[in-house]
């Protein structure tokens, strides 16, 4: 049977990446080429097929009807290629790569990781502390623990634990914070990259005291937590991160006022990796750990 000729692989790769990224600039950054080179690859593919695959708009590259028919198959094909390459080159099927943020890894995951290793001594685990969005198949990452609202397109997710926000401080500051309005007067610690803002908690606590007084700002949640334990001010924390410090007496809750948030910790992985034996073992273990943690923290 005569096979239908295929267009150049690079042009297919460019089209698939444009479909995911939505712009020539982001696609060029991913493929490590210039936007002009991406545009030329797309033009080559469109000329080969005799079809327009994307409409060029002010909002980015929008797939046409033909593009919508083509892109799912391209995405699936490149995922299969990546999986095949990974399977051919992987030296040890019992290596598990987990991506998560530094503060979650340091303050929650690592202290409990010994129990996973005791249960699964055959699995070598690698922890990658990276807050950027991960392409699981491209980056050869098996599973992640991410903080957010969930609903990441094209990924399998499982909600681990919803999070509330509450102020904490070192025991040495307990007399400084006697009522919620005292938080507004400082001193306060601010994590610049946090999802939470002090004003959100103050609103939930029912105080209209304006923010004033001293603040110290960090661009890293881990440092913000260390500063809170060192007595530099009150920090707006969430249970997964501060619970062990509360239990150890390094931090206290000046008020029993927790404000709800739409955020949670989620297990995240690609469809192709979700049911791998090593991933399934980690999923089952961490879900058990989270249930135990939740029962202890109420």
TrEMBL record:
Domain HTH lysR-type: 7-64
UniProt KW keywords: DNA-binding, Transcription, Transcription regulation
Coiled-coil region(s): none
SUPFAM superfamilies, per the entry: Periplasmic binding protein-like II, Winged helix' DNA-binding domain
A biological process term (GO) from this entry: DNA-templated transcription
Alphabetized PROSITE patterns for the sequence: HTH_LYSR
Family: Belongs to the LysR transcriptional regulatory family.
Protein name, as recorded: HTH lysR-type domain-containing protein
Organism phylogeny: Bacteria, Pseudomonadati, Pseudomonadota, Alphaproteobacteria, Rhodospirillales
């Amino acid at each position: 049977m005569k096979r239908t000729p295929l267009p150049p692989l690079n042009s297919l790769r460019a089209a698939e990446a444009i479909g995911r990224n939505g712009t020539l600039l982001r696609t060029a950054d991913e493929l490590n080429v210039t936007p002009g080179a991406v545009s030329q690859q797309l033009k080559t593919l469109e000329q080969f097929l005799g079809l327009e695959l994307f409409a060029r708009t002010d909002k980015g590259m929008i797939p046409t009807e033909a593009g919508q028919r083509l892109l799912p198959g391209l995405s699936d094909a490149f995922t299969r290629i990546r999986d095949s390459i990974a399977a051919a080159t992987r030296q040890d099927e019992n290596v598990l790569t987990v991506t998560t943020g530094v503060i979650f890894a340091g303050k929650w995951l690592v202290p409990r990781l010994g129990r996973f290793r005791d249960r699964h001594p055959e699995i070598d685990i690698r922890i990658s502390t990276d807050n950027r969005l991960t392409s699981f198949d491209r980056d050869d990452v098996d599973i992640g623990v991410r903080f957010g609202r969930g609903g990441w397109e094209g990924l399998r997710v499982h909600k681990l634990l919803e999070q509330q926000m509450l102020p904490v401080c070192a025991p040495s500051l307990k007399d400084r914070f006697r009522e919620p309005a005292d938080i507004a007067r400082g001193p306060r610690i601010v994590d610049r990259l946090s999802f939470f803002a002090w004003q959100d908690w103050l609103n939930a606590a029912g105080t209209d005291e304006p923010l004033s007084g001293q603040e110290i700002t960090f661009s890293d949640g881990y440092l913000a937590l260390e500063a809170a334990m060192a007595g530099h001010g009150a920090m707006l924390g969430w249970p997964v991160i501060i619970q062990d410090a509360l239990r150890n007496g390094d931090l206290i809750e000046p008020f029993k006022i927790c404000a709800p948030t739409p955020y949670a910790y989620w297990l995240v992985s690609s469809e192709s990796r979700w049911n791998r034996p090593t991933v399934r073992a980690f999923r089952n273990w961490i879900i058990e750990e989270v249930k135990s943690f939740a029962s202890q923290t109420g």
